[in-house]
Amino acid sequence: MPTVYLKGGDSIQVSIESLEDYLYDNQDRIETRRKKLRREPVDSATPSTNSK
């Protein structure tokens, strides 16, 4: 089940079937979070392995 994080530090798990309705009904209580993507650093000195 997806976890919805609420303002104030609370969290709740909502079933997939009712997630859309829950998100719509509780827009003002939901905290927006962004997850940082971890990518390996690109070394510009190494030649690319893509050959066309």
Description:
- This protein has 52 residues and is an alpha+beta fold.
- It has a domain at 3-37.
- It is 19% helix and 12% strand.
- The protein has one helix and two strands; from the N terminus they run ββα.
- It has one helix at 16-25, and strands spanning 3-5, 11-13.
- The termini are far apart.
- The mean pLDDT is 85.
- Residues 33-52 are annotated as: Disordered.
SSE diagram, text form:
Blueprint: E1 3-5, E2 11-13, H1 16-25
Antiparallel strand pairs: 1-2
Region (Disordered): 33-52
- The helix-and-strand class reads alpha+beta
Low-confidence stretches are none
Shape: elongated
Computed Rg: 19 Å
Q: Percent range for helical residues?
A: 10-25%
In what range is the share of β-strand residues? 5-15%
Biggest β-sheet: strands ordered side by side in the sheet: 1-2
> What's the assembly state of these chains?
single chain
| Largest sheet features | 2 strands, antiparallel
Mean pLDDT: 85
Measured distance between first and last alpha carbons: 43 Å
What order do the helices and strands follow? Answer: EEH
- Helix segment tally: 1
How many strand units?
2
Entry keywords:
2 strands, single chain, 1 helix, 52 residues, 19% helix, alpha+beta, two-stranded antiparallel ribbon, 12% strand
